[in-house]
Amino acid sequence: MPKIRTSRTKKPPEGFEDIEHILDEYTKKMRDAENESHEGQRKAEALWPIMRIAHTRSRYIYELFYQRKIISKELYEWLLKEGYADANLIAKWKKPGYEKLCCIRCIQSQDMNYQGSTCVCRVPKAQLKKGTVVECVHCGCRGCSSDS
User: Which residue windows are coiled coil (predicted)?
Assistant: First the structure.
């Protein structure tokens, strides 16, 4: 995940003060996850907490703008531009079938074991054998299909 570019050369739009403390908490959690010991974990496993925090922060901003309609369009666009949320992930959440998508990497077919497929976490749980535990290799998701 790219670091948040908070240049702040331009003053943040009105309403940023209301959500700034929550975004600061996400930044602290992100810093703690980055500094956490990754001994005994696979390379991809070490990134899971960071990806979860980035997903949660993006979902928070998405819900503020699209569902709860609390923040202005100007503030929303400024947050995306400054890197507080993943614009590509939010764009996917607006499309049917991708409402619960965990990360963009899970829908890219180039990184998967079988050519032209998506991640195992995108398979609806109803189509899996009973008792099968699904865990994405890339982000640790346990199922983000809309039918789950």
Answer: 16-43
Per-residue model confidence (pLDDT) at position 101? 93
Task: Mark whether 89 and 113 lie in a shared domain.
Answer: no
C-alpha to C-alpha distance for 141 and 119, rounded to whole angstroms: 10
Q: Tell whether 120 and 90 lie within a shared domain.
A: no
148 pLDDT more than 80: no
- Same structural domain for residues 58 and 88? yes
- Residue 23 domain-assigned (yes or no): yes
Inter-CA distances, 27 with 7, 13, 50, 56, Å:
15, 19, 10, 12
Cβ atoms within 10 Å of 125's Cβ, excluding its own = 13
Rounded to whole angstroms, the Cα distance separating 116 from 140 reads: 21
Classify residue 3: in a domain, yes or no: no
For position 71, what pLDDT does the model report?
96
In terms of residue numbers, what domain contains 110? 98-148
pLDDT value of residue 10 = 79
Q: What is the pLDDT of residues 9-56, one digit of tens each?
A: 678 999 999 999 999 999 999 999 999 988 888 888 889 999 999 999
